[in-house]
Amino acid sequence: MKKARLPKDMEPNPNSNFKVILGSSSVARKKILADMGYQFTTMSADIDEKATRKEKPEELVMALAEAKADAIISKFQNIQNEGKDVKPTILIAADTAEAIIPKLQIEEYNMDAEPALLITCDQVVVYEGNIREKPSSKDEARHYIKGYSGGCAATVSSVVITNLKSGIRKGEWDKVEIRFQDIPDQVIDSLIEEGNVLNVAGALIIEHPLILPYVKEVVGATDSVMGLPKALTERLIKEVL
User: Fold this and answer.
1) CB 175, CB 62: distance < 8 Å
2) For the chain, how big is the Rg over CA atoms in Å?
3) How far is CA 171 from CA 49, 148, 177, in A?
4) In this predicted structure, what is the pLDDT of residue 113?
């Protein structure tokens, strides 16, 4: 069978000895990973996130990143069983965790030459001790953002990386605190009307040009707030290789 080739712009970085698969459809995460110098493919986990519940935000984002990683691995296994030619090597999911997963049957993936990394992530916003995921409606998104006005919120982000060749998985979470100035109602209305805030945890997009002027202070890394902490991701990659 002829080996399938990736599009040229998605081929692995010639300076890297591993492939990268981002298990996320997030535009922000794609941009961050590209800014880190990686070329990668993407794959969606398609899980029911509401089916996984934890009391602590750190445990929740970790469990969800793990679940996304497991779902994508299952997809790879199904492809294997169908006899298709795929080359995964490492899986990255976001949350605080460290585990060894069963080795995949990788003969058909022909991964002797190089490993591949799969990265999966999750994020929630914590406000006044309550966990906030993606808003279920415009009204809920408006309620969320109004609460941030003149106040403080935190993001808890997880990253899990699984080496699909060795089966090694490493994961951890990162927390960032954001303090806001008063946010005018017209700005909130514009954000709701635009709609992007409906697709992110806690309706929180601090890099958005409408909200950025009202961010008073970020205690931590901005890339973590955007969903993929760079320093943590780089460290976990090294640990699974």
Assistant:
1) no
2) 19
3) 18, 29, 21
4) 46
What residues contact residue 210 under an 8 Å CB cut-off, 6+ apart? 187, 190, 191, 194
CA distance 56 to 60: 6
Contacts of 71 (CB under 8 A, 6+ apart): 45, 46, 47
Crossing angle of helices 185-194/138-148, nearest 10°?
140
Beta strand segments in the chain, E:
19-22, 41-42, 90-93, 97-100, 116-127, 130-132, 152-163, 168-180, 215-219
Q: Using DSSP bridges, classify how beta strands 41-42 and 19-22 pair: parallel, antiparallel or unpaired.
A: parallel
- Taken in order of first residue, the domains within the chain and their CATH numbers are 8-240 (3.90.950.10)
What is the structure's pLDDT at 67?
96
Query: Residue 133: which of 148, 122, 146 has the closest Cα?
Result: 122
Q: Which residues pair with 85 in a beta bridge?
A: none
Residue 82: per-residue pLDDT: 67
Can you give the pLDDT at residue 153?
98
- Would you give the end-to-end CA distance of the chain in angstroms? 29
The CA distance from 97 to 171, in Å, is 4
Q: What is the mean pLDDT of each run of 10 residues along the chain (241 residues)?
A: 38 64 94 95 88 92 96 83 57 50 44 75 96 96 97 98 94 98 97 95 95 97 96 96 91
